[in-house]
Task: structure prediction
Amino acid sequence: MQPTDPYAASSGQTTYGMPSQVNVPTYSGGYYEPVTRFDFMRMVTSPFKSPNWIMNLVWMFVCQLASVIVIGNLVTLGYLAEVAESRSGGRSENWPDFNPDRFTDYLMRGLWPFLWNLIWTIPVILIIGIPIFATIGMSSFLLRNYNEVPGIIVAITGGMVSAAICIVASLAMMASMLHAGLGNDFGKGADLNWIGTYISKMGLTTVLVGIVYSLVGTVLGCAGILFFCVGFLVVGPLLNLMAGDVGAQLHDIFVSRGGVSAFDDSHLGTDVIEAQVII
Result:
């Protein structure tokens, strides 16, 4: 008998309320395989799961143009949050297409992570800037008034401390936005316990995934320029779509390590069993 997804909901709904596509298989085994580590190929290929992937790219490009008046950013964040929800808690390999009729829904959902980005911006700048300027000032003073060794030691040590603080502060901002966006709740962005748990369980993984994502963006950007710069117009929208799957993977990995899901699972029955992790 073909194994079934223990997370799947009935009546045409996914576990977290997203519309499901009946009689459409997920992975080759016929069920969703929860990820416990980052899947690079899934990130790269996931935007093409939908037969309407070209239109999804077009809409992401339109949102990119509309970002000059902020609305594009809000809609993009909201749509990507739904993508992450569908491909994570929804246990679906199918890619939810961008629906212009749900413009307001995307806009409102994207508002929560956008607001938390604004709220975190000034504190993060201060948290990152103070040690950097302190290191520059102290090392410059030592280099001018003493021999070079103390100044170099302070510069190296201060640089390492500043880098560590920068990473932690950025992770806190990212976790806050992720929780608010995936949970579709502004208040979840203020859950310091969830943020701290995410950083402790996912800090290194998130940094490494961010590096991989940036490298992919660099490669695609160079390839886009080589295609007479026309291909470069596709790079931003494509990277945005990939970010939706990255959010889903990070969420699944976090939950697999004992983290609390960002989604509301209060409606799940007690008979739901833990999925067998086979990735």
Observations:
- Residues 40-256 form one domain.
